[in-house]
Design goal:
Elements: E1 20-22, E2 30-38, E3 48-59, E4 69-75, E5 77-82, E6 85-89, E7 94-97, E8 103-108, E9 113-119
Antiparallel strand pairs: 1-2, 2-3, 3-9, 4-7, 4-9, 5-6, 5-8
């Protein structure tokens, strides 16, 4: 059965009813926090939708995964490392990250960065 998580946040501090906080303390991460919006707790078996907020001056961890994933910027501006190149993105931009592609996301400027990240589920994911 489907579920809905109603938005109850603010312009640069997004939140949803029932969102599950996710620990994001990987090596190389600075000022990032996350939430699972749609996951196992909702019955999702093929994907997980997560929201991440990265404080100014922070960054996601430099990573590479065997799965692909998609990112949609909700607020703020980002500098994104995709393999060997850096690109900039802003609100409503959608980014595809290929399997095993090195990537890292950093906010640009004085505003926090918020984005959705859609990935396949892992047994270790909570939510």
């Amino acid at each position: 059965m489907g579920t809905i998580h109603r938005f109850n946040g603010e312009e640069d501090n997004f939140n949803w009813e029932g969102a599950i906080p996710r620990d994001y303390c990987k090596p190389g991460t600075r000022g990032a926090e996350g939430k699972i919006l749609i996951g196992k707790a909702d019955g999702a078996t093929n994907f997980i939708v997560r929201y991440f907020r990265v404080a100014p001056g922070g960054s996601s961890a430099p990573e590479s995964h065997p799965h692909d994933h998609g990112i949609v910027i909700l607020h703020g501006r980002a500098r994104i490392l995709l393999g060997e190149k850096e690109v900039e993105a802003g609100p409503r931009d959608a980014i595809y990250i290929s399997p095993n592609e090195a990537h890292q996301i950093q906010p640009i400027g004085d505003e926090p960065l918020g984005f959705l990240c859609i990935v396949p589920p892992k047994d270790s994911e909570i939510g």
